[in-house]
Design goal:
Radius of gyration: 22 Å
Structural class: alpha/beta
Strand content: 15-25%
Number of strands: 17
Number of helices: 15
Helix content: 40-55%
């Protein structure tokens, strides 16, 4: 063998090994659920609630009050009011935090509280906060805010770069919590009035379940810093504030990545009458598609709202639409939201279970990212959220098999391309 061929072969082998290592680093770390669940009970059966609280955990606890906040005009003032009224502690974890007008407002409010002696802890995903000006981070740190970037990439831990915290959590004095879909960026401002202002929902929470929200924040804070936040300033005794049973449910590749997937599959499998799903990113795997189809075929009314042409990822939309023909054929109703980007993430089952939070309906949320959802089992709250869903449905365009068949050629090509990376979507 010539010297040139030898070095070519050696470089080829080395490149193959490097690519193989990279591929292994970015593969989901745990076994995925492969078989469709057997339907043993429906949502009206007490076993459904037991399974949510025991098989998945944490337990569902009574005495909570959850208030729905729609779009930035309601969401940001409520969050900032809570921050500015903090007496002891503030814990904030988010994916997107950018240096724009709303980001500056949050940074100034957090800094002011830190200077006043409040213990302020901020967990920012490294990838999601890349557009944040380092000078703004430095100002917060100078004011006494403890800022931690989650999974800043380093060469010897490549897999961490792919595992992002997508959770959206704000807990003030351990007593008032917020969760939902919004990031700290200007596209969430306003009232979804145009394509520059997104449609989204967030939730203000009081009651014992806020302790579970704080525990979810503590999970990643401890992983990233080695410091455990404990004591009455973070976990005060919490009295009942309402009548809603709820649980704060979380998932992570380091602690049960498939549990969020399982929660959705359990809810869909248990549905007896209705499933209303708002999904800002809807790229279901084969098992989830089969589960939705099975629900529709046994007579469950399944409605799905996704973004329309106004979306921040055309490739994701193309990948999503590839599975729609078989869903439509089974009787699933699909509509695309028209006025602006639709970033809502809500599941309502049988006008009883409402699941809201950070989780998208895709493999990245189910297997790769750190996610957190608030599950509420309350008919009154479910009725309210169904009204919100109906209002969104009225602004969405129904998808028909005929229209779907006329998709442009490039969308089919994009679907094939995206399928190569389906595990990362």
């Amino acid at each position: 063998m010539s010297s040139k061929k030898f070095w070519t072969l050696l470089l080829t082998v080395a490149a193959t090994l490097v690519l193989g290592v990279l591929a292994l680093n970015f593969m989901p770390g745990e076994k995925q659920i492969e078989r469709q669940l057997t339907r043993q009970y429906d949502t009206a059966d007490p076993q459904f609630r037991r399974s949510l609280g025991v098989l998945l955990g944490p337990p569902i606890i009574e005495g909570n009050q959850v208030e729905a906040l729609l779009n930035g005009d309601q969401i940001f003032p409520a969050m900032l009011e809570a921050i500015r009224g903090a007496k002891k502690t503030i814990t904030l974890e988010t994916y997107i935090y950018w240096s724009e007008s709303i980001g500056t407002e949050f940074s100034e409010a957090l800094s002011e509280r830190a200077r006043a002696g409040v213990k302020v802890h901020v967990m920012l995903d490294f990838m999601g906060s890349m557009k944040m000006d380092n000078a703004q981070v430095d100002k917060m740190k100078a004011a006494g805010v403890q800022v931690q970037r989650y999974h800043k990439p380093v060469w010897w831990k490549l897999a961490r770069m792919n595992n992002r915290t997508h959770r959206k959590l704000l807990i003030v004095d351990g007593a008032v919590g917020f969760t939902g879909g919004v990031g700290i960026a200007d596209q969430w401002r306003g009232n979804a009035q145009d394509e520059d202002h997104w449609r989204d929902s967030h939730f203000r929470v009081e009651g014992p379940v806020v302790g579970q929200m704080q525990a979810v924040f503590n999970d990643n804070w401890t992983k990233a810093t080695g410091v455990v936040l404990d004591g009455a300033a973070y976990f005060p005794p919490l009295q009942a504030k309402g009548t809603m049973p709820a649980q704060m449910f979380s998932s992570s590749p380091t602690g049960g990545s498939e549990s969020m997937h399982l929660m959705y599959l359990m809810a869909i499998t248990s549905a007896r009458e209705t499933i209303d799903l708002s999904a800002s990113y809807f790229v279901p795997d084969e098992l989830t598609v089969r589960t939705l189809i099975a629900a529709a075929k046994r007579g469950v009314k399944v409605r799905l709202i996704t973004p329309g042409e106004i979306i921040d990822s055309d490739l994701v939309r193309a990948a999503s639409r590839d599975r729609w023909p078989e869903l439509l054929a089974a009787g699933v109703q699909i509509s695309e939201y028209q006025p602006t980007m639709y970033h809502v993430k809500t599941l309502i089952v049988d006008k009883l279970l409402v699941s809201v939070g950070s989780t998208n309906f895709d493999n990245r949320s189910f297997s790769i990212n750190d996610e957190a959802n608030l599950n509420v089992l309350d008919t009154g709250f479910a009725a309210q959220m169904t009204d919100v869903f109906d209002a969104d449905w009225a602004l969405a365009k129904p998808v028909t098999p005929h229209a779907l068949a006329k998709r442009p050629w490039w969308e089919h090509a994009a679907t094939w391309f995206v399928s190569l990376f389906e595990a990362q979507l």
